[in-house]
From TrEMBL:
The chain crosses the membrane at residues 72-93, 99-119, 140-160, 172-191, 203-224, 230-255, 276-302, 314-334, 354-377, 427-447, 459-478. NCBIfam families: matE. This is Protein DETOXIFICATION. It comes from Herrania umbratica. It is a multi-pass membrane protein. It is found in: Membrane. The keyword Cell membrane does not apply. Its main location: membrane.
Length: 509
């Protein structure tokens, strides 16, 4: 089992950390943990430390990438089968996945990501007993949010018509959205569980469950949607069942006793400090939602173009591929978030900074490789998603833009992962508003409609917003005082109910 070699991943498990003087929020009074790496003294030292960090990072990232790809592929495979059911079915599934479920996914993932900061830093500091309490607080908040989002699913048809989608697409997508309500509550349970397990580096079990769900999902999607001819009804049944299976399997693993002091049962402590927890969850939600919704807007804007059905289908295919590749980057996002939060919680600022450097270099190289493969096979891969000649040609024309977007999007989530690990969500939310919605969206609309560049123009403008946001995050991270961030992490742990005495006995062995 992966957990058998967990000491590689958790600084508080791999070394005895001596108690340090109390730190405040200034670097001048902060003293790093005794096992932090020394300052880099040369090229050979740099590569040696990078190699050591790469082993820790990729142990997490490889499994995170696999898990993220499997989970994302549930909806993506449904879209693939829907494309073989019919053009309208593909448009309905694409719009529901991108707009209705995409909106909800962004909210839930964002609010759940507060646990990446809290659980990651608490685990790094040895405060294992707080992890289960944090997860339960997140369940309360996310399920309450799901009750509010329920109205979005119920009135999906009217909402889609209101924002300009065609009558046919709105009706089909609205019906499909109502059938997908169980998935909404599965999101509310799944994301806190995922962050709880990730913070402890218990990734292997998540990968196994995700793989099993993907295999079953593929088989039953083919059987119900194509073989038995259930169409969209079959898509809803299988997609809901797949997410419920993931939640049930992960929760069964947690309560089986494998998480030690991290799960000691349900606790009334989950109802304490709820408002403060809500504020951090909302900051996380705003930050990530602004990113998720940004490319969701591409599908919406395509619906206003001439020949909207072809534009929506072609763009949904590109976004589908972009989503798959982004899952690779999100795997690294999770890994670097865990590494940064664990190391900051353990008072290892230089290790946290090194984890960032290794993650950015790795993600950039992966993005270049995927982009090259798409360019080489641009005449072939559209056949996997559609039988419509027009749709396939538009996808082929968009491939160079898609390749550039993949390269850029492989770096940006890593920087966001560092922001989550360090607890910068609120500030990054303002950055996203400015770069995405004040700059990127208006530029895309001007190029797409004013200059009649269509889908290409819309996408070019929005990629420009992503590029600006990436540059801003680079600047923020470059100027970061990592000693100060480690000191802030200690204060955060204290604030949320943990204690700050660092000792080997505090860590689950």
């Amino acid at each position: 089992m992966a957990e058998a070699i967990e000491p590689l991943l958790s600084p508080t498990q791999e070394e005895h950390i001596q108690p340090q003087p109390k730190a405040d929020n200034t670097s001048s009074t902060f003293i790093a943990g005794s096992q932090d790496i020394p300052p880099i003294a040369g090229v050979c030292h740099f590569f040696r430390e990078c190699f050591a960090e790469s082993k820790k990072l990729w142990y997490l990232a490889g499994r995170c990438m696999f898990t993220s790809i499997c989970n994302y592929s549930l909806g993506a495979i449904t879209q693939v089968f829907a494309g073989h059911v019919g053009t309208l079915a593909l448009a309905a599934v694409s719009v529901e996945n991108s707009v209705i479920a995409g909106f909800s996914f962004g909210v839930m993932l964002g609010m759940g990501s507060a646990l990446e900061t809290l659980c990651g830093q608490a685990f790094g500091a040895g405060q294992i007993d707080m992890l289960g309490v944090y997860m339960q607080r997140s369940w309360i908040i996310l399920n309450s949010t799901a009750l509010v989002l329920l109205f979005l699913y119920i009135f999906a048809e009217q909402i889609l018509k209101l924002i300009g989608q065609t009558e046919e697409i709105s009706k089909a997508a609205g019906t499909f959205a109502i059938w997908m309500i169980p998935q909404l509550f599965a999101y509310a349970m799944n994301f806190p569980i995922a962050k709880f397990l990730q913070s402890q580096s218990k990734i292997m079990v998540m990968a196994v469950i995700a793989a099993a769900a993907l295999v079953l999902h593929t088989v039953f999607s083919w059987l119900l949607m194509l073989r038995l001819g259930w169409g969209l009804v079959g898509a809803a049944v299988v997609l809901n069942a797949s997410w419920i299976f993931i939640v049930a399997a992960q929760f069964s693993y947690i309560i089986s006793g494998t998480c030690g002091r991290a799960w000691t049962g349900f606790s009334w402590k989950a109802f304490q400090n709820l408002w403060g927890f809500v504020r951090l969850s909302l900051a996380s939600a705003v930050m990530l939602c602004l990113e998720v919704w940004y490319f969701m807007a591409l599908i919406l804007f395509a619906g206003y173009l001439k020949n909207a059905e072809v534009s929506v289908d072609a763009l949904s295919i590109c976004c589908n591929i972009l989503g798959w590749t982004t899952m690779v980057a999100l795997g690294m996002n999770v890994a670097v978030s865990v590494r940064v939060s664990n190391e900051l919680g353990a008072r290892h600022p230089r290790k946290a900074k090194l984890a960032l450097v290794v993650a950015v270099i790795s993600s950039f190289m992966i993005g270049l490789g995927i982009a090259a493969i798409l360019i080489i096979f641009r005449d072939k891969y559209p056949d996997l998603f559609s039988t419509n000649t027009q749709v396939k040609q538009v996808v082929k024309d968009l491939t160079p833009l898609l390749a550039f977007c993949i390269t850029l999007n492989n770096v940006q989530p890593v920087l966001s992962g560092v922001a989550v690990g360090a607890g910068w969500q609120a500030f990054v939310a303002y950055v996203n508003i400015g770069c995405y919605y004040i700059f990127g969206v208006p530029l895309g609309l001007i190029l797409g409609f004013k200059f009649d560049m269509g889908v290409k123009g819309i996408w070019c403008g929005m990629i420009s917003g992503t590029a600006v946001q990436t540059c801003v995050l680079f600047g923020m991270i470059y100027k970061t005082n990592w000693n100060k961030e480690a000191s802030i992490a200690e204060d955060r742990i204290k604030k949320w109910g943990g204690h700050t005495e660092f000792s080997e006995g505090n860590v689950e062995q």
